[in-house]
Amino acid sequence: MGDRQRARPWRLGVLGGALAIVAACAESKNVLVVAGDDPGVDGGAQTFAPSPSVDGGDAAVVAPPELPLCIGTECPAPWATCPSEDRATYACGTDLSRDPDNCGACGNKCLEYRPTHMTSRCVDGACELECMSPPFSLEGDFDWRNCNGLVDDGCEVDLLSDPKNCGACGNACAPGVFCSGGQCGCPSGLVDCGGSCVDPMNDDNNCGGCNNRCAPPADACRPMPPRAYYGCRAGACGALKCQVPSADCNNDLDQCGGDGCELDRLGTRDNCGGCGIKCAPGLDCIDEGNGPECGVPCVKAGKVLCGVECTDLLNNPNHCGGCGAACRAAGPNQARLCTKGICTYECMPGFADCNDDPTDGCETNLSIHPAHCGACGNACDLAAGQPCVEGQCLMVACDGGVTAK
Distance between CA 93 and CA 108 in Å, rounded? Predict the structure, then answer.
């Protein structure tokens, strides 16, 4: 980490140091016009300021003269022709100011530094370091930050667990108080047991205090009531409790010899979400995320039951218009959609299906393809080697070149 990636900075609005981009049209095509910024007879760009009118009223605008335009073939900065192993190589098809694989120069890749929880991205042609917190991790959630401002040790602090930087750099918890989820200590009613927040009133392993594991009492029932066990209730061990998800609806669990937790679950039509809650005729006991309740499957959410899944048949591409009616897979640079129950496919911004073959998706990059520059069929001068830059055929102010017809 001592060696920081650096590349020559480029800015998109600066072309070759002394060049400026001016939009223009020639032969009804999209063209990118690059002109020198020194005024004069050599074809340089000129600035035309408004001139005051004779009567002192509003300023009259003087129209600039048309500049002779020629086909450009040299890449304007920050664009370059960089070879690629996994995609087609086009002239001037790489933006060195923001391409993470070619940042500032062809082949200069912005890297990740996982041991120090850092990555880098391309900004103005230079790889800039930033903290990296994986969105999914088998080890848990993390929010890594560079609290000491040093690069050598990277992003050294996890704001979700560091008691000296809990939730924010410099936010220290009180001595002996741990940090969990970016907050110091436990919520009201819970206690800290080895860095975990537990409920001492009901936790069978921390009953009344940390590490007090409940065991069957000496006078335990022989045999035990069905689906019951001895655990913690009101902060004391020795209480008969139901194994989840069973329930005791006839309230005889406090005595030996009864039927114990006679219901295996509270998800039946006669006991839906609670003892004695019966569903009306035509309704089922369903659980769609808020616990068991009486209703018609999926109707509350405006969906249809497909197998075991509540499905929106108007917008779900896996069940578009009917259960199991899946839309075909999307091709490259293409989005698969279900619109009002009909499969549709859209090209990603900047791409198009110029060969009218849906099987290969949206194969054409309109921003750099010289045969389809900005739109399908809008070809630059391929014989002259005219590149397509940001969806426009490159043109330059003439300086002894061939004037565009």
Answer: 16
